[in-house]
Amino acid sequence: MEFCADKTPSNWSAALDAAGIVLPAAAPPAAAYTPVVVHEGLAFVSGQLPRDVTGVTTVGRVGVEVALEAAQEGARLALVRGLAALRDGLGGLDHLDRILKMTVFVSSGPDFVDHSAVADGASMLLFALLGPERGRHARSAVGVAKLPRNAAVEIELIASVKPASSS
Predict the structure, then answer these.
(1) Cβ atoms 125, 119 nearer than 8 A
(2) CA-to-CA separations, 106 to 14, 21, 131, in angstroms, rounded
(3) 63 backbone φψ class: left, alpha, beta (φ>0; ψ -120 to 50)
(4) Cα–Cα separations (whole angstroms), residue 164 to 62, 94, 161
(5) Which of 79, 95, 77 is nearest to 38 (CA)?
(6) What is the pLDDT of residue 121?
(7) What is the 3-state secondary structure of 51-116?
(8) CA 59 to CA 62: how far, in whole Å?
(9) DSSP 41
(10) 47 and which of 67, 99, 154, 163 could share a cystine (Cβ 3.0–4.6 Å)?
(11) What's the pLDDT at 115?
(12) Residue 3, SS3?
């Protein structure tokens, strides 16, 4: 396994392997959209929910039916789903350079104010996978009244794609 100067794996597949993460099959679109659109070196990933083979795993409003820790785990799972979508949309993770922007939507109760802490669940996974430099990304955490399928969290990603000659 090849590592960067900060001792993190130098590519996505090695980083996921080192963390013991196996990407699931990408979720098929649930409506009239495509999971990933690539345009001029950027990949835009449609919203990803925290789901496994049984369905959405983290449901309800954070701060009401869902604890912060469960929401953070849901954010991590939604990020993993996003990486699976990128893998399929790009034809492999070797084409993925880095995550540039993550938008985390949090279904929350009216008094919940820790949306950023929910998003930290996904952000910390990126840092753990790629280290503090390559894992760095812009982020927004937004509280909403409801999400599809009553999910507690939904994540959208914008990623940079390596030029064809870099893969």
Answers:
(1) no
(2) 30, 24, 25
(3) left
(4) 41, 10, 9
(5) 95
(6) 98
(7) EECCEECCECCECCCECHHHHHHHHHHHHHHHHHHHHHHHCCHHHEEEEEEEEEEEEECCCCCCHH
(8) 9
(9) T
(10) 154
(11) 98
(12) strand
Q: What is the mean pLDDT of each run of 10 residues along the chain (167 residues)?
A: 48 92 90 95 98 95 98 98 97 94 97 98 95 93 97 98 76
List the one residue out of 25, 27, 36, 41 whose CA is nearest residue 156.
36
The model carries a pTM of 0.92
What amino acid is encoded at 8 in this protein? T
Return the structure tokens found at 111: 């008094």
AA letter at 115: H
Long-range pairs for 20-25: beta carbons < 8 A, 24 or more residues apart: 21/80, 21/129, 23/80, 23/83, 23/84, 23/87, 24/52, 24/53, 24/80, 24/81, 24/84, 25/84
* CB contact at 8 A, 80 and 145: no
Which residue is listed with tokens 């492999």? 92
Residues 93, 159, 117, 152, CA torsion sign: negative
Phi-psi map region of 130: left, alpha, beta (phi>0 left; psi -120 to 50 alpha): alpha
